[in-house]
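Per-record layout

source: Tetragenococcus muriaticus 3MR10-3
name: Permease component of an ABC superfamily antimicrobial peptide transporter
length: 598
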Amino acid sequence: MLLKLSLTGLKGRWRDYVVLFSGLMIAAGIFYMFQSMASNDAFLLSNSPVAMTGIIFQLGSVLLGIITLVYILYANSFLMSMQQKDYAMFMMLGAKQRKIALLIFIETFIIGLLATLLGSLIGVGLSSIVSKLLTNQLDIQVTNFSAFSAKALLVTLIFFTILFLLAATINASSIVRKPILSLLKANETPTASRRKPVVLALEAISGLVLLGIGYYMMNSVDKIGLLALIIALFTIVLGSYFVFHSVMIFGLNLLKRSDKLRLKNLNNFTLSQLSFRIQDYTKMLSMVSIIFALALGALTVGLGFHKEIPKMTEQTSTYDLLINNAQDTDQKPIEELNPTLDISYQLKEDENTVYFNQEQFDKEPLNAIYYDTTPKKTTYSGEELANDEAKMDSLRTLLLPEQQGKEISMVAADEFNELNQASSRLQVVQVKDFMAQKDAVGKIVAENVKQNPSLAQDQFSMNQKYDIYTLYNEIFSGLEFMGFFLGIAFLTMLASCLMFKILSGAASDVARYDMLNKIGTRMSLLKKSIRREIMVLFLAPGILGAIHVLFGLKMFTSLLSEPYAGIWLPFLIFFILYLLYYILTVWLYTDIVLKRKE
């Protein structure tokens, strides 16, 4: 009988439960996607040069697990807030507490288990789709990544099963231990919100000072080191808490003092709602702002690595294309590149020496790179190459492997012509836009390897720009892939946590909106008030998190030449996802608090 009554209640609130169930599936799917990377050792090792990447990603997995736990707690709170009156009615009708506890346990666990199973399947599909989108659209190379991972699936099922067993146990014990009257009146219990102005002012000043210290430390990581990161983490977390615990309340109180503002429409009611909520939301908003910053930072830095690939390639290569034994190479594909520079240097060799015509280098100096504090490009004439062995090494790297071990000699044109050895050509080429023409360049490089089999013995050659680009792309694409995945996962989870935190308090607001409706308040004003109230709760942590990111990017100036370049793209992605969650939250909240009046 109780099960039938419960199913009837579920049917009556199917829209709320669909959103809850969908949110749990998304949580399970995202957790699976992250685990499919965090547990894939072959993927981690083949897509990042950093030895600590595996450990860092496992720590990230733990952080995601904590966020998932928080998410489920708030989703669970939303579930209980909708059902506690029903359970109280069952008790009033004579149902035994043991039966109610068993009913709650089964209901919570079954919903969680089904959501986990379906979410894991969705996670497999999303992993495949996202990996293909990233590799195709971002032009990155990711190896050893499989959408399906038995290990990740097992970890996901075990983790969520334990979570929902705990949630079911907590639900069952918390409901049956409360008096019936407390369950019926739980949503009407007020929360104290009075704060002394002096305390508010001290907390506000402390919060701003702590944030300032944290931002300074992030800007001084290259000077202070690891200690700066530890101080920044502590001060920014505590500063964020004080900002929401005091600065926002202080600001709301100032706005309420303006008669022109607060007496317009329902502004006074909206400001009072925010002041009433903000203390209860302090921890949630602080957490959202911090992890929002980590998520946005991960996505921004990940995309930043993608932009660094062409720059780093350019800094470590002198020519766009190098052809050994060019006399045997078809020149048509090279001509189709419309090169801006096309030079051939003649060479002859015997068993011990490679000879070059010095006059050719005097006429067309060799492009080279020398390292000061940063890589710098220069040119060397034939005379400079002949008199400086270190400069001669720049030419040596362009030769075939079997030639690099020989002595290199610059000789006059007459002497070069008198040598009896056969002449060959070393051809160097520059194109107008390497990135736009790299596919065509790659084909010529592959043909050059076929013509010179000894090049195939070297897995990577520092003389071909295309090979350098390929190496950097393989290295940093893995980091970019991880950053993108991590950022989207964190944002989705945190936005969901904030959404369910807001929805879990919706039941207590029904009476307030009911009162406004009874005194004749227009429905359009009520909906406008809801939109503004929820907008503040979404914007506040989002804005503070974005500020954290803008200062935090200073830490990556040693890794990224332009950490702020193209920052609009990750911000746009976050804005769109955040906006979708805001719209969904407004719709659900409005349906809960106003559905009885429409």
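summary: Residues 89 and 537 are 33 Å apart (CA to CA). Strands lie at 321-323, 341-349, 353-357, 366-371, 375-380, 407-411, 424-430.
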